[in-house]
Design goal:
The protein is an alpha/beta fold and about 220 residues long. The chain has a single domain, classed as Uracil-DNA glycosylase-like domain (Uracil-DNA Glycosylase, subunit E). The protein contains eight helices and seven strands. The structure holds uracil (URA) and iron/sulfur cluster.
Length: about 220
């Protein structure tokens, strides 16, 4: 039987007191996190990017292969789709705060495929273990609207299983448990879902829907 992974959760590594409200300090502290086993096979922690005082925060799933190597979120193919969608929605990438529900790259290695590292969706247990970072950074940034990109992010932000198809594009109240005080939530698809679309019209529709949801979130942030 494989040993069950050690997953104490990130609490112990998240700074207390005044240090907690500074994103750069949180990002620095996250290098030491051993809140779950995902740090072990990853190159480095990938924390966040963008404006630490943004009105709009975007939450993805987890870093991908490129992000893991570079230490920056959304610098790979999904990040390019997201950058294009932000641009089409009239948002400057540097004006939003970008982060992920899980801060280390979960993957499997395929030696038969030249050691390619294949993305593996994080489990609910990883989302839960990593949540103290997301809570601390969103409490520090205090965005008006949090956009959850895909179902893993929606689960982290809403604190419950979430169907993107049912929830997307609406301005939702934040969860009652107070993890993200004051911020409304908009759920949309993950930009990587577009990378799997092969035909052009499917892509155009999915891209337009993502842009529309980002626009809804931006308007809600302006009017909050
Ligand atoms: N996908 C994500 O969810 N986050 C990233 O940072 C990159 C790809
Ligand atoms: Fe810590 Fe999150 Fe990385 Fe797990 S994935 S080690 S909880 S930072």
């Amino acid at each position: 039987m494989p040993r069950s992974p050690d997953r104490p959760g990130a609490w112990r590594w998240v700074p207390d007191g005044a240090e907690r409200s500074d994103v750069a300090t949180l990002a620095q502290a996250a290098h030491a996190c051993r809140g779950c086993e995902l740090w072990h096979d990853a190159t480095q922690v990938v924390f966040s990017a963008g404006a630490p005082d943004a009105d709009l925060a975007l939450v993805g799933e987890q870093p991908g292969d490129r992000e893991d190597r570079e230490g920056e979120p959304f610098v790979g193919p999904a990040g390019r789709v997201l950058a294009d969608a932000l641009d089409a929605a009239g948002l400057e990438a540097g004006s939003v705060y970008l982060t992920n529900a899980v801060k280390h790259f979960r993957h499997v290695e395929r030696p038969e495929r030249g050691k390619r590292r294949l993305h593996k969706t994080p489990d609910v247990a990883h989302v839960r273990a990593c949540l103290p970072w997301l809570e601390a950074e969103l409490a520090a940034v205090r965005p008006r609207v949090v956009v959850a990109l895909g179902s893993t992010a929606a689960r982290a932000v809403l604190g419950a299983p979430a169907r993107v198809g049912e929830l997307r594009g609406r301005v939702l109240d934040p969860p009652d448990d107070g993890a993200f005080p004051g911020a409304a939530v908009v759920v949309t698809t993950h930009p990587s879902a577009l990378l799997r679309l092969r035909d052009r019209s499917g892509w155009d529709d999915a891209f337009a829907a993502l842009v529309a949801d980002l626009g809804t979130a931006a308007r809600a942030a302006r009017s909050a």
